């Protein structure tokens, strides 16, 4: 079955957040929640989706600050390229430099490698 994507433009910077979902299983990957995690949580719950992954394209504050709230509300394994771990470790300091409030990173970070394929629903070759 195919994957679908839904884009949410969130926060004062209109950041792109994505819900990538297997049509057959409703299994979902949530990508780059920097702002308004409550909007993402509501979108997932109202669509009856099941979160498997929380993914970040990179660890800038405006892509990560809302991920922990989503993880706590919906679950999901958090994945990030290990090259971005130093940024993740300094998430609150990043935000403070721009006047944003403190934020905690998601728990249990899994390393995501370049070109890695991860299964999502019935799609085993998604990357």
Summarize the SSE layout with pairings.
Elements: E1 3-10, E2 15-22, E3 27-31, H1 37-46, E4 50-55, H2 61-64, H3 67-74, E5 77-80, H4 85-89, H5 91-97, E6 109-111, E7 118-120, E8 123-126
Parallel strand pairs: 3-4, 4-5, 5-6
Antiparallel strand pairs: 1-2, 2-3, 7-8
Please give the radius of gyration in angstroms.
14 Å
What is the highest CATH level, the class?
Alpha Beta
The biggest beta sheet reads: 6 strands, mixed
Distance between the termini: 15 Å
Question: What best-fitting shape do the alpha-carbon axes yield?
Answer: globular
- Can you say what the CATH homologous superfamily is? Ribonuclease Z/Hydroxyacylglutathione hydrolase-like
Number of continuous helical runs: 5
Report the CATH architecture.
Answer: 4-Layer Sandwich
**CATH topology title:** Metallo-beta-lactamase, Chain A
In spatial order, strands of the major sheet run 1-2-3-4-5-6
Query: Which range best describes the helical content: under 10%, 10-25%, 25-40%, 40-55%, 55-70% or over 70%?
Result: 25-40%
- Number of DSSP strand runs: 8
Class per helix and strand makeup = alpha/beta
**What is the overall pLDDT average?**
95
Strand content: 25-35%
Strand and helix order: EEEHEHHEHHEEE
How many domains comprise the coordinates? 1
Contiguous runs where pLDDT drops below 50 for at least 5 residues: none
């Amino acid at each position: 079955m195919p994957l679908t994507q839904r884009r949410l433009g969130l926060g004062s910077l209109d950041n792109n957040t994505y819900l990538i979902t297997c049509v057959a299983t409703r299994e979902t990957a949530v990508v780059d929640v920097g702002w308004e995690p409550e909007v993402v949580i509501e979108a997932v719950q109202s669509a009856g989706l099941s979160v498997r992954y929380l993914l970040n394209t990179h660890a800038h504050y405006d892509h990560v600050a809302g991920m922990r709230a989503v993880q706590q509300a919906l679950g999901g394994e958090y994945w990030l390229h290990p090259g971005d771990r130093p940024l993740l470790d300094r998430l609150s300091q990043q935000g403070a430099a721009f006047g944003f409030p403190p934020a905690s990173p998601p728990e249990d970070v899994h390393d995501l490698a370049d070109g890695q394929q991860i299964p999502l629903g019935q799609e085993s070759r998604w990357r």
